């Protein structure tokens, strides 16, 4: 599924049009709802259908497969009106690594969570520990956020590795899962 502009220009980045996006379950946000740098260039990312058995388990039907990049930037936004005011939630990236995954031991991946324009909270992610269990879906903790009592606003989130020139690849990103914090 390519995104091509009206002038026939193919943007190499996957940019979501959130106005046309229908997400029936606010707790499972699919990868197609994200902005992915190089995500519209099939040299770096490809879109796949998830096998039915796996899809039932993880509650996603499609995924973005990272073939290779040296600049990882995956971002998204959520309208917080769909979430319960006063509740703290945890955000998890639903990923798996293929057996031939590479570059994750040298790539310090960071996640970012930002609510209503406040200062962003950054977290380091050790994806190498997940890579050693290939072809298995993992929920990688990406941060937490609290919906303010006025029940509204926006959540911005992202996963980045933009500080090195290390190539990394063979990660499959199904989406983000949101869970109320226990």
From TrEMBL:
Record GO terms (molecular function): carbohydrate binding
> According to its UniProt record, what is one Pfam family this protein matches?
PP2
**PANTHER family for the chain:** LECTIN-LIKE
Its recorded name reads: Phloem protein 2-A1
Q: Which organism is it from?
A: Actinidia rufa
Give the source lineage, highest ranks first.
Eukaryota, Viridiplantae, Streptophyta, Embryophyta, Tracheophyta
């Amino acid at each position: 599924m390519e995104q091509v502009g009206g002038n026939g220009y193919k943007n190499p980045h996957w940019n979501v049009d959130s106005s046309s996006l229908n997400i029936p379950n606010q707790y499972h946000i699919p990868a197609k709802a994200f902005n992915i740098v190089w995500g519209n260039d099939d040299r770096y990312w490809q879109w796949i259908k998830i096998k039915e058995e796996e899809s039932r388990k993880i509650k996603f039907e499609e995924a973005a497969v990272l073939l290779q990049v040296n600049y990882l930037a995956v971002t998204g936004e959520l309208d917080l009106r769909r979430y319960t005011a006063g509740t703290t939630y945890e955000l998890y990236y639903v990923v798996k690594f293929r057996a031939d995954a590479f570059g994750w031991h040298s790539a310090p991946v960071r996640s970012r969570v930002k609510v209503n324009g406040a200062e962003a909270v950054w977290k380091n992610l050790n994806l190498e520990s997940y890579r050693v269990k290939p072809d298995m879906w993992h929920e990688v903790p990406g941060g937490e956020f609290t919906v303010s009592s006025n029940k509204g606003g926006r959540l911005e989130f992202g996963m980045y590795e933009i500080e090195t020139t290390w190539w990394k690849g063979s990660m499959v990103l199904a989406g983000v899962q949101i869970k109320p914090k226990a």
